[in-house]
Structure formats: C-alpha cells, structure tokens
Design the sequence.
C-alpha cells in the first residue's frame, strides 16, 4: 500500500468542475496554467501536497511582461 502517493483530481477554481489534471501528494506545480474544459477558463495555479493555490484566475489577460 502506498497511501502517501495517492492522486487527486484538480478542480477548477472558477466553476469547481473536475479538470483533466491529476496531482499526487508529491506533485509540485508552480505557475501552472490549469485549463478547465467546462468553463474554458485558464487559471494560474501552484500546487504542493495536494494544496492548490490560485495565483490568477478568470481568464485575466496580463499585458505586462
Ligand atoms: Zn471551470
């Protein structure tokens, strides 16, 4: 048994729908563009130890580089 390596689906921070992205307890994402197939919004997220942090959401377009 490997309960420390379970995987969970990431839910869209905009609509709450399950996305097609799965993360594990040892997955780390930084500035990851999470795309939701349901509401078609892209959210920038961080993920660590199954905790999702939304950096930017709702399809905001950043014109500054
Ligand atoms: Zn969504």
Sequence:
């Amino acid at each position: 048994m490997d309960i420390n390596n379970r995987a969970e689906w990431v839910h869209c921070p905009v609509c709450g729908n399950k996305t097609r992205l799965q993360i594990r307890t040892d997955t780390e994402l930084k500035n990851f563009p999470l795309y939701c197939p349901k509401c078609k919004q892209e959210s920038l997220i961080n993920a660590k130890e199954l905790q999702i942090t939304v950096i930017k959401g709702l399809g905001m377009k950043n014109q500054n580089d």
In short: Residues 3-56 form one domain.
